[in-house]
Amino acid sequence: MCARRRLAVMTTLKASYTDPSVPAYVAAHATQPDQLLRELAVETAAIAPDNISMQIAPEQGALLTMLVQLTGARLAVEVGTFTGYSSICIARGLAPDGRLICCDVSQEWTAVARRYWERAGLTDRVELRLGPALGTLTALPEDEPVDFAFIDADKAGYPDYYRELVRRLAPGGLICVDNTLQGGRITDPGAGGNVPAMRAFNDLVTADPRVDSVLVPIADGLTLIRRR
Fold this sequence. Notes:
By secondary structure, this protein is an alpha/beta fold. The chain has nine helices and seven strands. The chain has a single domain (3-227), classed as Vaccinia Virus protein VP39 (Rossmann fold, 3-Layer(aba) Sandwich).
């Protein structure tokens, strides 16, 4: 399967709750991934075919880079790195003196990320912290505000990750949260799996008076949360 077709399949699957032509159109009208990101997507599909949904869609990557640039972020945190696609997109948008802390538990998958960080010339601004993300987040200094965060990990852990990040978020800072539509099953009261946990998380964010939020129906749903 060619690289272009693989990317198209990834995008279609991640937005399976809409007509397949819509996510394909959205992807085609976003800034396209460069050669390095395309190669990373193809390698990830080859070595982790059963986990490919853990990688963000290309149009999400373009959006993350833009959002980081718009916030002028200097300190960013990512919860759930996998093979590194989203971390590259975030790190590329950081201010010249910015840095990204990546939280993940898999040495295997992040070894791929490390290779691509080096190829992208980002090793000086990306720090990987292996271990349970909640422990990493609680250990972050209280006096160093986080400007941007991306959560894309185990769904049951989302509330805890959110609570630790939002209280460290700078005024006007942004948290992006992936998979908040759960393949369109989020509105199905009988859906199981991660849906109940995600529905509870979505309600938690909506009820939080400290933030403004919007759930963007891109890929599998991306919630943008801004600290007031």
